[in-house]
Amino acid sequence: QVQLVESGGGLVQAGDSLRLSCAASGRAFSDYAMGWFRQAPGKEREFVAGISWHGGNRYYADSVEGRFTISRDNAKNTVALQMNTLKPEDTAVYYCAAKEGRVVVAGTQYPSWGQGTQVTVSS
User: Fold this and answer.
1) What is the pLDDT of residue 28?
2) Dihedral Cα 83, 81, 11, 15, nearest 10 deg
3) Which of 82, 108, 111, 120 could disulfide-link to 69, CB 3.0 to 4.6 Å?
4) Residue 32, helix vs strand vs coil
5) What b-and-e string marks burial along 82-94, b requiring 16 or more CB atoms within 10 Å of the CB?
6) Is the per-residue pLDDT at 27 higher than 80?
């Protein structure tokens, strides 16, 4: 499996931008599809964005489409989530996750997870 560590969370105001990063170590990073998920207090974990192993296919939840951008750098073993025009409802702990094969929205299909990074958006 691959080990994942997120960074870049913080407290911002509505309308601001934030960039999350996830560093991977262990097995070959390019073997994995990557996903970003989030979990707000009292809510279930939800899929936010995903990217194929080669970076050519990207997927977004409707709630973030047009505001968030997922990208990856296989040479640096990193995946990023650029979040623009943040809203208070984006407040959550954000996790990156890895799986072999294709991107899927079901978090249960991802065997590798980071520890999460808190994003708080004030109104």
Assistant:
1) 87
2) 0
3) 82
4) strand
5) bbeebeeebbbbb
6) no
